[in-house]
Structure formats: structure tokens, C-alpha cells
Amino acid sequence: ATAEEDIPSLFEGIADSAIATKYDFSSQGISNLLWAFSATGYPEQRLFQSLAKPASSVLYEAGHQSLANIAWAYSVANMEDSSLFNEQFVNVCVQKERDFDYQGLRQLHQWNLWRKELKSDIVLPHDLGSRCYNEFTKQTLITSDFQKQVVSVLGSVGLVVDEEVQTKSGYILDATIVHSGKVIGLEVDG
Predict the structure, then answer these.
(1) Which residues have C-beta within 8 Å of that of residue 30, sequence separation ≥ 6?
(2) Best CA proximity match to 70, nearest among 139, 54, 8
(3) Chain CA centroid to CA 81, Å
(4) Gap between the Cα atoms of 61 and 82, Å rounded
(5) Distances (CA, A) of 56 to 39, 47, 96, 156
(6) In DSSP terms, which residues pair with 165 in a beta bridge?
(7) Alpha carbon distance 113, 162 (integer Å)
(8) Which of 112, 114, 143, 171 has the greatest number of beta carbons closer than 10 A?
(9) C-alpha span between 27 and 60 (Å, rounded)
């Protein structure tokens, strides 16, 4: 997932092979594969559809990070599957709630946002959802030199710039400006 090379045929071949052997994967194998495809920007629809049932069959044996990776991967890929994301999935997340570290909680927050965007009834319970949101909003802010330059240029042309603006969803925009009475969010380098 970090080779930084664009080789679609490699991903297609991996997807074909994984689909052919989909019931041979462990929960960690499924989660790592789905995570890699989403993280690299190759959300292969056939793969995600094919692995939903095998993933749902190993939920109880899945570790907390595997659950978070699966949730995050499907949300990033925007691949809804009711055979995987149902009350059973939520119940397993609740059962393993104490096991999730900050990374897993942040991934579950993104999954929960996606579920709400879909207007789904399948979302995290309020307490767990709040815990995920709180962890997500504890992000360490790093302002790059490039961002500082952009903000300086915007200010020099008379625009009022607010930096590091947190949205209701918990995401942080690098800056916002007001133009023609509308607030415009800017993501400079992230």
C-alpha cells in the first residue's frame, strides 16, 4: 500500500485471485486486503462485494483492528453491504469497544459518519459513537510552511482567513474564507 506506483493490472490480478479464494482468508487477511485497496485508491467493487459475506462470517473471531479496518475500508470505498453492516456488526463492535485504540476509534468514527450520510439505521450506539468522535477530534494539528504561505497570500489580498477550523463532523479544514457571503473551506495540503 505504500509503493506509490500506479499499476492497475497488479490490483486487478490481486482482486481476481482473492475473489477465487475468498473463503480461505482469515479475518486479518480480509481486513488487510480491503484496507490496502481503499488506502491506495483502488476500491475494486467486485472485491468488496465478494468479501462481504466471508467478512461477516468471521466477525466474532476478528480482532478489534480488523473490525476497524473493514469498517474504514468499506466507508472509504463507499461500498454498502447489508450482509456485513447490520446489527451483528454493531454488536461485535460494542462487545470489543474497550479493545479499540485511538486509530480504531478514529476509523470507526469515519464509518459512523458514512452510515449517517447514507441515512442508515445501522450506526454505532450513542456512547461508542461519542467516544469515537472524541478520539477523532483529538488530532494533533500540524501547519505546513506551504499552508502558512497560502494563508499569508490570501490575507494580503484582503481576505479574512480562519485557520484550522473544525467542522461538525470532526474534520479540520486548513482554513476558511468568506467570499460573497459564503464560507468556503480550504484544504491546502492534506
Answers:
(1) 51, 54, 55, 58, 66, 70
(2) 54
(3) 16
(4) 19
(5) 21, 14, 16, 54
(6) 173
(7) 25
(8) 112
(9) 9
